[in-house]
Amino acid sequence: MLWLALCFPLLPLEALTRGDDVRQPAAVELGRRLWRVNAAAREFGVQPDMSINAALALAPDLRVRVRNEVYERRALEEIAGWVLQFSPQISLISGQGLLLEIGASLRLFGGLDALLSLIRSGLPELGFSFQDAVLPTPTAAWMAARLGVSLRVCASAGLVSALGPLDVGSLGVSAKMELRLRGMGLHRIEQLLKLPRKGLAKRLGADVLARLDRAVGRLPDPRPHWQPPAHFDNSIDLPVEAEGGASLRFALHRLVLALSGFLRGSDAGAGRLELLFHHREQGPTPLILNLMTPGRDVTHLEGLIMTRLDRLPLPAPVTAIRLICDDVRRFETASEDLFGLRRKADEAVPELIERLRARLGDAQVHGLCALEDHRPEQAWARHSSSVSPSHVRRPLWLLRQPRPIETRRLYRVSGPERIETGWWDGHEVARDYFVAQTRDGRRLWIYRSRSDLGIWYLHGLFA
User: Fold this and answer.
1) Is 26 inside any structural domain?
2) pTM beyond 0.90, yes or no
3) In a shared domain, residues 258 and 127
4) Which of 19, 159, 277, 453 is found 20 to 30 A from 40 (Cα to Cα)?
5) Over the chain, what HEC string results?
């Protein structure tokens, strides 16, 4: 196994300031003294443990925030959702960072260098700075990352020599124990490893020895597995009230980027997005975006949102933005032909329609569908559904007799498609059909009768 540790020393600050311009001096205070400061504040001479008044004297524009552990936890889970696209095995270290098992992902991403490059470019774009290390055990990786020592050790044989120069503070023991170690003249891990094991356990306790053994692989090092949420729900507070679409783009980009990573990690796409623009003295302004096909491309989604936002009247300045995606669908990648032309053509039409609907409004974009009527003027109708009638799908297997089905655990993929026919032969039907998906990815053709909307029926199964 190979573990990547990501430590976020500025998480308490960045969790509160993700909507800020990175050039704005900012700090988090704890007990009326500065606890974390960003790089822009350091340029003015502002340092941690400085009094707030002294810091403001150096940097009058310094924004000082109060620590919020709820925001820290939310930010850490957002990061975990984004890195899910690189590894399904993630463990959170409360308030500090996370661990990823990346050994099984290296071939998929073209090796360690390529994988780290993606993470190192993506996380700052999300608004988070970090320290990383790669080692064969999670304890060893975390020891190096929390000190800011970017080690890369892929083989267990080099583990002991790599950990040797690290400071004993990397063990994460209590402040009292760390002081005791230093009082004994033990400042580096290699000094601890040279001591007799029995004597070490007797003088310092079993905990220190167990930490060392987990670090070098002598003891198992199980980690709790982080379970991603079923849906995406995240928000960003703005540093100052914003009135227009352009001033909201910075925060919107970070939200969409986080959503895209979450969807890729879940092998899913978004069918529907809901944005809530919060105001200081009134309820939020909603923006709903329905997609023809499940999407997760950052550029496309961001373009649709900004186009729709240009048409959305905001009644008051915006203080925060919340992005919700509760319609998470399985993402299907179209098969390519030899030259990749078919996939481009298949994607072009839905994306064009989505852009038109975003710019003109859902009610202004229609399709045409054929009707079973011999009269030319009655043989067609306008169609405003999000699914193009010319691409309506039919199941491979049709049940002889439709049977009732419970729909609470199903996700809607497309629909409704209304079918009304048979009045002339005494077997009239009036039904609304939907394509639904189970949790394990199976596609079902279900309907409910127009005369009894309370009961759902299963009528077919897709291959």
Assistant:
1) no
2) no
3) no
4) 277
5) CCEEEEECCCHHHHCCCCCCCCCCCEEEEECCEEEEECHHHHCCCCCCCCEHHHHHHHCCCCEEEECCHHHHHHHHHHHHHHHCCCCCCEEEECCCEEEEECHHHHHHHCCHHHHHHHHHHHHHHHCCCCEEEEECCHHHHHHHHHHCCCCECCCHHHHHHHHCCCEHHHHCCCHHHHHHHHHCCCCEHHHHHCCCHHHHHHHHCHHHHHHHHHHHCCCCCCCCCCCCCCCEEEEEEEEEEECCHHHHHHHHHHHHHHHHHHHHHCCEEEEEEEEEEECCCCCCEEEEEEEEEEECCHHHHHHHHHHHHHCCCCCCCEEEEEEEEEEEEECCCCCCCCCCHHHHHHHHHHHHHHHHHHHHCHHHCCEEEECCCCCHHHCEEEECCCCCHHHCCCCCEEEEEEEECCCCCCEEEEEEEEEEECHHHCCCEEEEEEEEECCCCCEEEEEEECCEEEEEEEEEECC
